Amino acid sequence: MGINIGALAGPLLTGLAQTRLGFHYGFGLAPFGMAIGLGQYTLGRKNLRTAGGREVPNPLPRSGIPKALLVAVLGVAVIVVAFATGVVTLANLARVVTGLIVVASVVLFVVILISQHISATERSRVFAFIPMFLASFAFFAIFQQIFTVIAIYAQQRTDLTVGGFSIPPAWAQSVDPVGIIIFAPVFAALWSRLGERQPSTPIKFALGLLGIGVSFLLFVPMAGGDGRTSPALAVGGILVLFSIAELMLSPIGLSLATQLAPRAFRTQMVALNFLSIAAGTAAAGTLAGYYTPAKEVSYFGITGAIAVVLAVVLAAASPWIRTMMRGVP
After folding, report:
1. Would strands 161-162 and 165-166 be described as parallel, antiparallel, or unpaired?
2. Contact predicate 308/228, CB 8 Å
3. Which CA distances in Å does 265 have to 59, 166, 327?
4. Domain limits of the chain?
5. Is 302 exposed, middle or buried (0-12, 13-18, 19+ CB in 10 A)?
6. Residue 302 has what pLDDT?
């Protein structure tokens, strides 16, 4: 809820500033928001002294600190050299980032799985997290196109005039946070009320993939043609479905990572959850390169169909995944 209140306000303010005053003012609002967040954290950090998560079950020894710093410095140096020599450019950045995240994720999974600090039960749970990682990656590769393909679609293909008011295109980014704010309490109450009768986590992930796939398929009837042919309310309704799909997967994924995490690698499992989001976000940038108004029908249709198929596969694999989760619901 906290994240999405900011996600709601940000596009509303920056979009309005950009359309009325220009891009400089839209970008200029960002550091003010960041300063407010940093100030709030600084004033409230004293309340975190008794919060959970302060225990480090598998701390980095002091002897490992120089090695960790050396790796960090070398990493920064490689990035600088890659850009300076033209190996990495803005044109291939999304593909390179996606590849690097995938490699880092594989390495981290291997480090955890071969560690002597985890039990057989914990190792089984890590294996169970792998298909969930892949599902999260696939979901966000589609969902994060809300900032690429959907942003272009809102600007170029959507009739943004409602009741004589011209809606700033950036406001399309605020529809999803509105849906989250409205439906997050509903889903929280629903899962609490259902208790043990609620769907398992793999099924919720499958429903999230199904929802985002259906959302893309709903663009197909409006796709094609010339000009602004899509009603703003119709696009807004589809974006609300984005929110419902996100609620089936995103907050649950973070919780799942902590529940399946070995005690010695709790932070690393949470990192893997965010790496799935990062990889999906980078892949969304790559996929956006294939979108053009002339290919809208095939683009939305194929992408949506792939998500639906993956949802079916994940649902079919859910019994095995639940077995490997060893008691985690």
Report:
1. antiparallel
2. no
3. 10, 50, 19
4. 70-324
5. middle
6. 95
pLDDT band (50, 70, 90) for residue 159: confident
Q: Give the number of other Cβ atoms within 10 Å of residue 211's Cβ.
A: 23
Instruction: Give the long-range contacts of residues 110-117, CB within 8 A, separation 24 or more.
Output: 111/268, 112/262, 112/265, 112/268, 112/269, 115/262, 115/264, 115/265, 117/58, 117/262, 117/264, 117/265
17 touches 168 (CB < 8 A): no
The pair of structure tokens assigned to 292 is: 């053009």
User: Rounded CA gap, 244 and 208, in Å?
Assistant: 8
Residue 52 pLDDT exceeds 70: no
Residue type, 29: L
pLDDT of residue 54: 63
Output the CA angle 104-89-276, nearest 5 degrees: 30
Query: Could you report the per-residue pLDDT of 15-46, keeping only the tens digit for each?
Result: 888 888 889 988 998 898 889 889 988 998 88
Q: What's domain 70-324's architecture?
A: Up-down Bundle (1.20)
Q: What is the band of 50 on the pLDDT scale with cuts at 50, 70, 90?
A: low
Whether the per-residue pLDDT at 311 is higher than 80: the answer is: yes
Alpha-carbon span 202 to 196, nearest angstrom: 14
In 3D space, the residue among 255, 256, 235 whose CA is nearest the CA of residue 176 turns out to be 235
In the prediction, which pLDDT does 321 show? 95
Q: How far is CA 7 from the centre of its chain?
A: 13
